[in-house]
């Protein structure tokens, strides 16, 4: 018997299958292909429980798929019981993906000061203290969003969102390189800056780095981090077990 985990972000939906605490397999899909993917996963796996975490547009058919197959499910919301104390001042507006990241922090690093950085459409920073209290963090434009913004808000800058790049020089000697340095190296410096600030206050800080852009960004960081590609899915699985452990 397995758990189905759905993390619907603003760029991609991620689908994962867990057995107990272990991720068995996962896929990154476009939102439009999600229902088809779920059908094939349900056909190929014996799914008993599921959790939906959606920070993007509502997909009305989603719940009926689980109801039709009599799968117990949770649609993560502001009222879902959580394995940590949520001290966010506006819990109703807190992103459900951010709740999942905080849950993963307390599940995998209990009673520690943890900063979770998720480099997705936006870069989010979640701070959980050694009392298992979630305090909040930071919301910042993600890598693709930076490229998109430079293109959208100027007359002369190209759209570089889908242009691959690797090592970048200090000095950008053409438009493309200058923009790539600004977007990627600039974001890496932002991330290092926040890590440094948190470390000044919490010297024993554990830093977890996840999200679709974690690979391209982590190699540009000065600070050492723990790369955790499926950290959000692990947090969702933990919330699912916390609520439907029978
Ligand atoms: N194989 C890939 N295909 C497309 N995008 C990828 C791939 N690997 C990493 N990415 C990056 O992942 C980012 C989205 O990250 P993700 O964590 O899925 O965001 P969100 O949760 O906001 O949907 C994209 O902006 C893209 O730069
Ligand atoms: C900040 C986010 C857009 C991040 O979404 P993502 O980049 O992971 O798709 C999402 O967590 C959200 O909509 N948050 C609501 C505001 C808040 O958390 O306070």
UniProtKB/TrEMBL annotation:
It is found in: Cytoplasm. Pfam families: Pan_kinase. Its cofactor is K(+); NH4(+). Substrate binds at residues 88, 95-98, 175. It catalyses: (R)-pantothenate + ATP = (R)-4'-phosphopantothenate + ADP + H(+). Pathway: Cofactor biosynthesis; coenzyme A biosynthesis; CoA from (R)-pantothenate: step 1/5. It is an enzyme of class 2 (transferase). Gene3D superfamilies: 3.30.420.40. A monovalent cation. Ammonium or potassium. GO terms for molecular function: pantothenate kinase activity. Homodimer. This is Type III pantothenate kinase. It comes from Mesonia sediminis. The gene is coaX.
